[in-house]
Structures are given as structure tokens and as C-alpha cells.
Write a structure and sequence with these properties.
Chain lengths: 91, 138
């Protein structure tokens, strides 16, 4: 089982849990499994078309999956998946 | 609504003044109770934007992960993100909105001629097309 770290503002949707263990062959499968277990999380991570929202960046251990195989990146049992919102701004 | 405790607020203003005339950024940590976000600690963060920082800020993902870890250790949540607008009003700009996240309150501090002038807080929607102003106390 890979471990997904739940960002603190989303813990309210995982019954207060900091980490959720999920099975999945890829990072995408793991995130699907997470939102299958905790349905209220889904809206926070996916848009109406079922795609990850544009501000949702996902890290496998310390690497941004955009630079690996995106949601198709293979996930191992020892892996930690982190969800980090992409935030910036300017005038 | 969002209420920022004095010590946290002082940290935010000090960081915004230090970074002037560049934009500063950081995280607000605390607890949420009965719909009130109570900020108990502010954590200055690095502006990771590689370019003119007078009108742009960007968070560093590695630092965001570190802040999440600190929040967990203190049983806090990351409730919001703050940034400054040097010599400009505390509004939520189009680029602020398009690069926001609905999980957080976004507090904007207006710093005019190097001194704190006023601040506002905003709650962006999931589509990043609209942000509601949120009552702010500090
Ligand atoms: Zn801004």
C-alpha cells in the first residue's frame, strides 16, 4: 500500500486522518482509490470532467509527477504521495 | 470569517515590510471552529518567482510540504496564504485568482511606501473564476 499525505485543510474529509493508505499500480489509481474511500474529497481534487484540478500538483516522494509519468507514474508500496496546491499571483 | 491573532499578524506585517518593494508570501496556521478560521501562527515563506518580484509571488512546493509538516506537528491546519501588494491596494487580482486554491483564505496586505496600509481576505471558488471577500479581523 502506498501512503498518501492528506493536506491539513482536507483532513475534514478524511475523518481527521493525516495519511491514508491505498492500493494502486499508478499514482492515478492511488488517487482514485483515495477518493473512492473518501467521496467528499473528490470535488477538491477533480473537476467535473474527472480531471485533476489545475491547482492540484502531486508529488511521488519528492518528485513532481509532471516530470515523471504524470498520473501514469508507477506507485510502489514504500512510496509516499503528497498533494501540493500550486499557488502564485501577481498584479 | 478569519481572525488573526496579534503575534501572527505582527509576523505577517513584519515580513511584508521586510520584502518591500517586492511581494512577500507566507502561510497562516491555526484552527477552524464553528466556521471561524483562527490564525495562531504565521510562517513567512520564500517568494520563489524567478523574475521581477515587485508584482509577482510564487510559493515553493518543497517549502509548502515543510509547512504542512510543521502544521501537523502542532495539530494546526494551514488555513490560508498571505501575500503583499507593494504600493497597491489589497485586491485579489486576476492572476491571484487564476493561481489560487479554494482550500485556503487568501489575505492580501497593502504596503504603501514601506508601511502597512490595509488588508483584505478572499475565498476563491473551485473553478478559480470568482473570489468572495471574507470578513477579516486582526
Ligand atoms: Zn496579489
Amino acid at each position: 500500500m502506498a501512503k498518501i499525505l492528506i493536506p491539513t485543510p482536507l483532513r475534514q474529509f478524511t475523518a481527521g486522518k493525516d495519511t491514508v493508505e491505498v492500493s494502486g499500480a499508478t499514482v492515478g489509481d492511488c488517487l482514485e482509490a483515495l477518493t473512492a474511500q473518501h467521496a467528499d474529497l473528490r470535488k477538491n481534487l477533480y473537476n467535473d470532467e474527472g480531471k485533476l484540478r489545475s491547482f492540484v500538483n502531486v508529488y511521488l516522494n519528492d518528485e513532481d509527477i509532471r516530470y515523471l509519468g504524470k498520473t501514469g507514474t508507477a506507485a510502489k508500496d514504500s512510496d509516499t504521495i503528497s498533494i501540493v496546491p500550486s499557488i502564485a499571483g501577481g498584479r | 470569517m478569519i481572525r488573526i491573532e496579534k503575534q501572527a499578524w505582527d509576523t505577517m506585517v513584519a515580513h511584508a515590510r521586510e520584502c518591500y518593494p517586492r511581494e512577500c508570501c507566507g502561510a497562516m496556521l491555526g484552527v477552524e471552529e464553528n466556521g471561524v478560521r483562527l490564525v495562531k501562527a504565521a510562517r513567512p515563506m520564500r517568494n520563489a518567482f524567478e523574475g521581477a518580484q515587485e508584482d509577482t509571488y510564487q510559493l515553493d512546493p518543497a517549502e509548502q510540504l515543510a509547512v504542512e509538516k510543521e502544521a501537523r506537528a502542532q495539530s494546526f491546519s494551514v488555513l490560508g496564504i498571505f501575500h503583499s501588494h507593494p504600493d497597491c491596494d489589497a485586491y485579489f487580482s486576476k492572476r491571484d485568482l487564476q493561481n489560487s486554491c479554494p482550500w485556503y483564505s487568501f489575505v492580501v496586505l497593502s504596503i504603501q511606501k514601506g508601511e502597512f496600509h490595509h488588508a483584505n481576505s478572499f475565498l476563491p471558488n473551485f473553478e478559480q473564476t470568482e473570489a468572495k471577500q471574507e470578513p477579516l479581523e486582526y
